[in-house]
Write a structure and sequence with these properties.
Length: about 110
């Protein structure tokens, strides 16, 4: 008899499509907070990525951590001027991501 009783797979974003959802959300985020960016400043995607890396230890991977990182990034680049309405828009984008139907990769 085999010594293995269970085989487990970590299927996070290996069995289904999710990158287009993140890319689309980043474009919406850019439309919201882009006006706060200094023209000579860093790229928004780079700033968001650095925020995500800093938060990884606390939030892990996933949509909720990504959403919190977008909010933090927006507040940071706006120097605290991001409005409650804009923050609510980012929260709504995170909810839309969570509600997005799972689309399996071909052959899964």
């Amino acid at each position: 008899m085999s010594p293995f009783k269970v085989i487990a797979f970590d299927a996070d974003d290996t069995l289904w499509v999710n990158e287009p959802i993140f890319t689309e959300t980043q474009e919406k985020f850019k439309a919201i907070v882009g006006p706060y960016l200094h023209p000579d400043g860093k790229d928004l995607e780079d700033i968001l990525y650095q925020t995500e890396l800093r938060n990884l230890r606390l939030f892990g991977y996933g949509i909720k951590g990504f959403t919190l990182s977008m909010i933090e990034t927006g507040i940071e680049i706006s120097r605290g001027k991001m409005t409650a309405t804009e923050i609510a828009q980012v929260i709504e984008m995170g909810k839309e991501m969570l509600e997005h139907p799972v689309e399996l990769l071909p052959g899964v």
